[in-house]
Structures are given as structure tokens and as C-alpha cells.
Design brief:
Largest sheet of chain A: 2 strands, antiparallel
Number of strands of chain A: 4
Radius of gyration of chain A: 16 Å
Strand content of chain B: 5-15%
Number of strands of chain B: 6
Oligomer: heterodimer
Order of helices and strands of chain A: HEEHEEHHH
Radius of gyration of chain B: 31 Å
Number of helices of chain A: 5
Helix content of chain B: 40-55%
Shape of chain A: elongated
Shape of chain B: elongated
Largest interface: A-B, 34 and 41 residues
Strand order of the largest sheet of chain B: 1-2-4-3-5-6
Distance between the termini of chain B: 114 Å
Structural class of chain A: mainly alpha
Structural class of chain B: alpha+beta
Strand order of the largest sheet of chain A: 1-2
């Protein structure tokens, strides 16, 4: 495993930890989610995580993020171009969708969830690292 | 001049270089095709995700629909036979007072107020806790339930007048002893926060579902300045509860000898047991 793959693995594992926590919180009460922002009586994280954008066809976005991070982690243990492509594709999908959700936070909900922003940053870093790994190895 | 052997080796090297270049070119082409395919898949998946996500919002339940009829049936059966006066549900002489500070557009208040069979536009499932409080303490005469207005989620409504309009609409129903019908109906037929669903026809639609409400009087009472003033007074008082956190729902339970339990802000982690414990600590 080269340095780039190890870097991807580490960032993706941080993502797994964060997404696991957010998924747990989603099912066990958003009120306990630590958050800096507070607006209209609820924390901004609670507002974002309970908004219409927090679920896709009934599935929590946090859970989808967890699946994405797990896929990326798994792909680092598999050799071959297909695995590298899957890693890059998953990270890119996660990155693009995170950017869309961040747009929704800022312009639609007007609330910022630090946890969501952190995850968006992780996915962006993963997309860049995975792109370099995919193009270099090819 | 190169020998024949050297010429042969040179030709071989050139052939190998050409073959290598062709292999590299084919690999690069394959890589670009794979990358193009990958990006196409990414674009398709992201577009699908965004379309599904954008479709998540919803408007409020329309009065004539089956969902509204089901909500109305639930509220009627919950509140049937319980007296109400001055916005207080239950026996006025009940020893314990349960005060809910709420915002009718607040989806968390909606979770507190609606039964577990109900899922709001934010995809949050109702807790059934307020129903339990009503059935256990209010119906039995052990407590009375008071609603006070506290603006939270309504501040997200693009229509800044909606807050006063909706709270006054409920208070106006209260002048006919029907405030809790109106409150419960709006919680059970709530739209998505910030989606601008609180329109005049929505408010009137709710009023038309309240059994026995004199619609003409309700329309007239909504113009009373005293009701607007009451909403503002309650809102100001509400922001001071729980050290000024200004959260909804906030439930304050006070007993007969001036004892007041710690306000329950939001949805307690321990669930309905938190309300029972608060009641027991003051009763």
C-alpha cells in the first residue's frame, strides 16, 4: 500500500467515524448533537439534519455517506484499475452531492451544520486524492 | 557506416519503440474511455440524487383529502369530552398545570403533538407524548394543559406575517373553546418548515375542520388587536423560560403549591418518562 492509498484510507476512516456518529444520532435524537450554531430555538445542526434534505427517499443522508466512506475504505484494499476507479467515482459522487447539500444549507435552509461541512471537506479531499491515485497509477 | 548487425538492432529498437508507443496510446485511450465513462456515471448518479433530494419537500395537507380527514378524526377522538376555556384544556381546577410553549410551524413541536402513526413533511415520526399527557393527566382531571405562543420555526417562513396570523387563528378558536382543536389540527396537518404553506386558505381550511366552530365569528375575532397583543406577550414571556433559550417545544409543569419542575426543552432523551417524572415531582 503506497503513501497515497494510506492517506485515502486514513481520511476515509475519519469519514466512517463521523458518518457512523451522525447515523447513530439520526436514530437516537438529534437534540444531543453538539453544534455551535443556534437559531430559532434549535441548533443549526438539528435544523439541517432534520430538514427535507437530510433524507433521500426515506434513507438518512448520513447513512448514505457512511456507505460511501465504507466503499472507499474497501476499495483501498483491492488492487487493480477497477478498484481505483470505484474509489475515485464514489469519492467524486460524495463530493458533488456534499457540495449540493452545502448549497442547500447556505441558500435554502440558511443554517450551517458543522458536521455536514466537515464531511463535505473530507469527501472533497478524498476526491482529489483518489483522482491523483487513479490517474497516476493508470 | 553501421554494420548489418547494428542496422538490425536499430530496426528492432525502432520496432519495439513503435510497439511500446502503440501500447501506451491504446492504454491511454482505454484510460480516457474509462475516465469518461466514470465521469458520465458520476454525473448521472449526482443528478438523480439531487432530483430525489429536491423532491423531498412537501406542502401542507389539503383539508378535503383523506389525510386531513384522518387527522381530523384523530384530533376529534383525542379531545372529545374535554372542557376548554380561555385556551386551557381540561378542568380549570386541576391541581397541576402543564404549559407548552410552541410554534405551530415548528416540526419538533409537531413530533411532540402527533401520534406515532404520523410522519411529518420533515420525515419525522410523531412521538404520541402529548396525546399520552392528554389521555393520562388532562382527561382524568389531574392536570390542565395551556398553550403559549413562542416563535421559533416560523421565523424561517418567507412570509413574515404568517407567525402572528396562525397563532391568532388558534387564539380566535380559543374564544369559542376550540383552541386545542385548532392547535392539534395544525400540528397534524403541518407543512414543511420554511415552505410558505401558511396561507389564508390553509388557516380557513383548518378552521372548517374544527367541529362546532362558528366560522363567521372566528373570522371576525381574528381581527381583534387583543389577540395579537396576547401572542406578542406570550412570545416575550416564552423567550425568558429556561434561561432565555427560546426553544420549542418547551414544556413547563407546575404543581398546586407553587412547585415547578425544570422545563423540558425540545424532545427529552428519556422520552415520555421525562414528563411523567416532572409531573410526579410537583403533583
Amino acid at each position: 500500500m503506497n503513501a497515497l492509498t494510506i492517506a485515502i484510507l486514513i481520511v476515509a476512516l475519519i469519514g466512517v467515524a463521523e458518518a457512523s456518529y451522525l447515523t447513530y444520532i439520526h436514530y437516537h435524537g438529534l437534540g444531543s448533537l453538539p453544534c455551535f450554531g443556534k437559531n430559532s430555538g434549535h441548533s443549526s445542526c438539528e435544523a439541517v439534519q432534520s430538514s427535507v434534505y437530510s433524507k433521500l427517499a426515506g434513507v438518512p443522508v448520513a447513512l448514505l455517506g457512511l456507505l460511501g466512506y465504507v466503499t472507499i475504505v474497501a476499495s483501498t484494499f483491492v488492487r487493480g484499475e477497477l478498484a481505483r476507479a470505484a474509489c475515485f467515482g464514489t469519492a467524486l459522487i460524495g463530493c458533488c452531492f456534499s457540495l449540493y447539500l452545502t448549497y442547500r444549507e447556505i441558500f435554502t435552509l440558511k443554517e450551517i451544520c458543522e458536521w455536514c461541512v466537515a464531511s463535505a471537506c473530507l469527501m472533497t479531499v478524498l476526491a482529489v486524492l483518489a483522482a491523483v491515485r487513479y490517474l497516476r497509477a493508470s | 557506416m553501421a554494420s548489418r548487425k547494428e542496422q538490425k538492432e536499430q530496426a528492432k529498437a525502432q520496432r519495439l519503440a513503435k510497439e511500446q508507443a502503440a501500447t501506451d496510446r491504446a492504454a491511454r485511450q482505454r484510460r480516457m474511455q474509462t475516465l469518461g465513462g466514470l465521469l458520465a456515471v458520476v454525473v448521472i448518479v449526482v443528478v438523480v440524487l439531487i432530483v430525489v433530494s429536491s423532491g423531498g419537500g412537501g406542502s401542507a395537507i389539503k383539508p378535503e383529502t383523506a389525510a386531513a380527514k384522518a387527522a381530523s378524526k384523530h384530533v376529534n377522538s383525542l379531545l372529545a369530552g374535554i372542557p376548554e376555556s380561555d385556551g386551557t384544556l381540561g378542568k380549570p381546577s386541576a391541581p397541576v398545570t402543564i404549559t407548552e410553549y410552541g410554534d405551530l410551524e415548528c416540526s419538533v413541536c409537531d413530533v411532540l403533538a402527533t401520534p406515532s402513526s404520523f410522519t411529518n413533511p420533515e420525515s419525522e415520526q410523531g412521538s404520541g407524548w402529548e396525546d399520552q399527557l392528554i389521555n393520562t393527566y388532562v382527561k382524568t382531571g389531574k392536570a390542565r394543559l395551556v398553550f403559549k405562543s413562542l416563535e421559533t420555526a416560523s421565523s424561517e417562513n418567507p412570509d413574515s406575517s404568517a407567525w402572528v396570523q396562525q397563532q391568532v387563528a388558534a387564539e380566535a378558536a380559543g374564544l369559542q373553546g376550540k383552541e386545542w382543536y385548532y392547535l392539534e389540527l395544525m400540528y397534524n396537518e403541518q407543512g414543511a418548515e420554511g415552505s410558505n404553506y401558511v396561507t389564508e386558505s390553509y388557516l380557513q381550511g383548518l378552521a372548517k375542520q374544527v367541529p362546532g366552530l362558528n366560522f363567521k365569528k372566528w373570522m371576525s375575532d381574528r381581527n381583534k388587536a387583543s389577540l395579537r397583543s396576547q401572542v406578542n406577550t406570550e412570545n416575550n414571556a416564552g423567550t425568558a423560560v429556561d434561561g432565555g433559550s427560546g426553544s420549542t417545544p418547551t414544556v413547563v409543569i407546575s404543581g398546586p403549591v407553587g412547585k415547578t419542575a425544570t422545563p423540558i426543552v425540545g424532545l427529552p432523551k428519556s422520552g415520555y418518562a421525562a414528563y411523567v417524572a416532572a409531573y410526579n415531582s410537583v403533583a
